[in-house]
Amino acid sequence: MSDAVIKPPHGSPSAPLVTKQRTLAADVWRQFRQHRGGVVGAIVFLTIVFLVIFGPYLHGINPAALDVRSRNLGISFAHPMGTDNLGRDMFAQVLAGGRTSLSVGITAMMLSLLLGTTIGVVAGYFKRLDGPLMRLTDLFLALPLLPLLLVIIMLFRDVLRARFGPETGIFLLIVFVIGITSWMQTARIVRGAVLSVKEQEFVLAAKSIGTRERRIVTRHILPNVLSPIMVSATLGIATAIITESALSFLGLGFPSDFPTWGRLLYDGVNFMTINPSRVIWPGLAISLTVLSINYVGDGLRDALDPRIRGR
Amino acid sequence: MKKFTTFLTGTAAVLALGAASAQAERGSDGHLNILYWQAVSILNPFLSGGTKDVEGASMVIEPLAKYDEAGNMVPALVDEIPTVENGGVSEDLKSITWKITEGLLWSDGTPFTANDVAFTAEYCMHPDGGCQQIAKFTDVESVEVVDDLTVKVNFSVPKPFPYGPFVGAESPIIQKAQFENCTGPRAPECTEQNFGPHGTGAFRVTEFRANDVVSFEANPHFRDAAKPAFATATLKGGGDAASAARSILETGEFDYAWNLQVEPEILNQMAAAGRGVVVSSFGTSVERLELNWTDPSPDKGAIRSTIEAGPHPFLSDPAVRKALSISIDRELLVEAGYGASGQATCNILPAPELYASTAVNWCLEYDVEEANRLLDEAGWERGGDGIRAKDGVRLSILYQTSTNSVRQATQALVKDMWQQIGIETELRNIDAAVFFGGDPASPDTFQKFYADVEMYTNNFPGTDPERYMAGWLCSDIPSPANGWLGANMPRFCSEEYDALVGQMAETAELEARGELAKKMNDILSNEGALIPLIHRGDVSAHSVTLEGVRMNSWDSELWNVADWTRAQ
After folding, report:
1. What is the pLDDT of residues B236-292, one digit of tens each?
2. According to the model, what pLDDT value does residue B16 have?
3. What pLDDT sits at residue B438?
4. With CB atoms counted within 10 Å of each terminal CB, which end of chain B scores lower, N or C?
5. Which domains does chain A have, with CATH numbers?
6. How far apart are CA A231 and CA B192, in angstroms?
């Protein structure tokens, strides 16, 4: 790289005398560290993930254990978030719910991102495929979502339940259902961005030196459209968590004794006046997760954008 | 029943107070706001079985006789209830003659005659009409108009209880002149008639918006010139039980709300605000678990959950059924989900008192050890994960019900109790509109019963259980052949039971009928066709400014809306 021969400005203490090989990842990381919101977001998000994964080992109460005699309790040492109307420990439920909600959110987001980005890039880059793929996107956008979900769940629920058991089966089904019904916005945005990027001179330059199309897409187009992808990814997690809770509420999601953040919220609404912690904690967990992911996405977008990076 | 009697004395006091203001003139008390959180979709009970529709219609159209809050029949459009003693019911029990009160007018000012009554029967009994209340007209041979004010119902068999047709909110009289062109297949097409029937009730419809709101005004031709006290009324739909309770008890936006199945602690907290009163009464509603006697496994395909699929892999074992029942701590379920509006029961037929059995109370005894012993004895061995199995069949239950926070709480508790006797439970909850919707295309209806156990509440209108108990006949099992209609959800079939049902249809004497009903109840509980859990009261709430409410489990809750007044 040409940077290696440029002498660092005087008085720059960090400038090494012998420059090391720079990688994209290191550049991104250096830039990301300077985005304060992104760093705070990452710390919060990693803390939530850490708690959700290791919390149940520290707080050993079974989230499903019932104790009707000690119901609707407030905050105490034994129950840091109180108990619900059947005496289940709220903290244990929030931790267990987080495992489900986060894994549903992240997996569904990845699936919809993969679909949306692939379709968006292909439609934007290859003119011949643009029409058919965008009409397909329109078709999916026009599908009435709820009846579609009802049909899919009706057709496959018993099959998956028999093969993978009630919880894994429903997990796969929900992730799949959310994934294939939420990729359209991403595809649209990515296609728009690809259309504008592919007309720029550096793409023409790459073409003129005979770069293969696959390489142009991965090396030149994708990094330049990463920012909209990151934004839809962060929004996608939030949507997936919320869609999952709506499905559970309709009775199409996980069994009612299987906690997720959305379900804890719904169940708690009636008890809000008796025991506000029933809605505060799961609500806070959802908001914090979504907010922190949004900030991480913001930071990543800045760090990944070659035009901003290095400024 | 203690709660019930205290309630009764309470209403008697309210009535005494209300009597003074009832002398006031019609329409002097302004506007009445009623909230039914399941919105009314039609005002013709013959075309809808939904309680909300039946009760909404009861403000407008009335039967010849109603049931009061104690379950006694009271005359509405007649002067007295026909009986064998007063000659209204024939000696052979094959006919009943109703004498209509003179001078009754429809809300459009035309006279009410026996022709309207006869037409109503014709309307509902039309073979292509799809009448939802056809059970009320079972065994009716003909309805004769004797003269303008006398109508005679002839039955094909002796009817010990001839008060099916034209008694209670499910069987009101509609106007012949209005519905004449709406019989048979044209019934559902008559939107204007179905949304705004002319009636004899205290109110008449001014505006009807399906699934939203119905507006009423006082019926100018109502038989009592001083009633109703309210000039106008609104029947609003929408929301859920908790928000309905809040709008009466906390914010006071509405005067009356129906069916408040909310956790007791929430209701108590709301009632503490002092704006409203929670009222309850016990009718025949029983929250029960129904056990599937047939094989519901998905690999049976189209015949799953039918007799053809064969017996259930483990619920066909009487020991398992009994263990399931005695391992449930019913008192705990009452405490967690029902409070004062529920009582532990072992009867599927808990009321009226004449029919309530006491012979099956063994199941009230919560006994985990006995349940475990029963299962051990029957050869169900605990596996490594603590779940019992025999010959490769695991005791793993799919347990479904409708979506409602109280039901989900009950499910969670029952799952925990069954866990202790080595039975694994998977919970499923289905939206009430789908679960009770009866759509033959949906796999999630309670009739299809594609699960091992399901839980819901059922009851019967009026006070005579004959039709209700006939719901567990072998011939009443839902299957693809009958479009999944039929009331026998457990797919229970017993010759002894069928014989008792036949015997009851021929027995006139009340005591003997009571004995037969008890026997049937005991068979159902002892055999474990179903596991009764809780005798549920109906819970409603009214504003402290509303007087005259007499909470009724035997008829429409709005049965005496004509007598409601505003406290001064």
Report:
1. 988 888 889 999 999 989 999 988 888 888 888 888 888 999 998 888 889 999 999
2. 41
3. 72
4. C
5. 31-309 (1.10.3720.10)
6. 53
Chain A residues whose beta carbon lies within 8 Å of the beta carbon of residue B430? 251
Give this prediction's pTM.
Answer: 0.77
SS3 A180: helix
Question: CB distance A267–B408 less than 8 Å?
Answer: yes
Q: Say whether B416 and A64 touch across the interface (CB within 8 A).
A: yes
What's the mean pLDDT in B539-563? 91
Cα angle for residues B288, B293, B297 (degrees, 5° grid) = 110
In this complex, is the C-beta atom of A146 within 8 Å of any C-beta atom belonging to chain B? no
Q: Which domains does chain B have, with CATH numbers?
A: 10-275+544-566 (3.40.190.10), 284-460+525-537 (3.10.105.10)
Contacts of A267 in chain B (CB under 8 A): 405, 408
Measuring CA to CA, which residue among B270, B222, B8 is closest to residue B101?
Answer: B222
A154 contacts in B (CB within 8 Å)?
Answer: 442-444
For residue B87, give both structure tokens: 């000659």
User: What are the backbone dihedrals phi and psi of residue B83, each rounded to the nearest 5 degrees, phi first?
Assistant: -135, 175
State the Cα–Cα distance between residues B268 and B339, nearest whole angstrom. Answer: 10
Residues of A in contact with B426 (CB under 8 A): 166, 255
**pLDDT exceeds cutoff 50 at B12:** no
H-type helices in chain A, by residue range? 24-33, 36-58, 90-125, 127-142, 145-164, 166-181, 184-197, 201-208, 213-215, 222-224, 226-249, 261-268, 277-304
- The beta-carbon neighbor of B265 closest among A64, A72, A250 is A72
Taking the CA atoms of residue B56, residue B59, residue B65 and residue B71 in that order, the dihedral angle to the nearest 10 degrees is 60
3 state SS of A199: coil
Please give the average per-residue pLDDT across B482-509, as a whole number.
Answer: 87
Q: Which of B262, B336, B444 sits opposite A86 (nearest CB)?
A: B336
Measuring CA to CA, how many Å separate A258 from each of A65, A88, A189, B138? 12, 12, 36, 46
3-state secondary structure at position A203: helix
Residue B558 · residue B45 · CB < 8 Å: no
Q: What is the pLDDT of residues B275-286, one digit of tens each?
A: 999 998 888 889
Residue pLDDT, tens place only, A95-154: 999 998 889 888 999 999 999 999 999 999 998 999 999 999 999 888 877 778 778 877
Residues from B in contact with A at Cβ < 8 Å: 242, 262-263, 265-266, 269, 298-299, 332, 335-336, 403, 405, 408-409, 411-413, 415-416, 426-431, 434, 442-444, 450
Bigger pLDDT: A251 vs A244: A244
* DSSP states along B312-369: -TTTTSHHHHHHHHHT--HHHHHHHHTGGGEEE-S-S---SGGG---TTGGGGS--HH
Which has the closest alpha carbon to B192: B202, B178, B176? B178
> Pick from A255, A256, A274: which is nearest to B266 by CB?
A274
* pLDDT of B72 strictly over 90: no
Tokens 């009832």, residue located? B22
Report the DSSP pairing between strands B396-402 and B453-458. Answer: parallel
For B138-182, write each residue's pLDDT tens digit.
889 999 999 999 999 999 888 888 888 999 998 999 999 999 998
Optimal mutation site among B240, B247, B408, B452, interface A, most CBs of chain A within 10 A: B408
**What pLDDT score was predicted for residue B76?**
93
DSSP state of B260: -
pLDDT of residue A251: 63
For a pLDDT cut of 90, what percent of chain A falls above it? 21
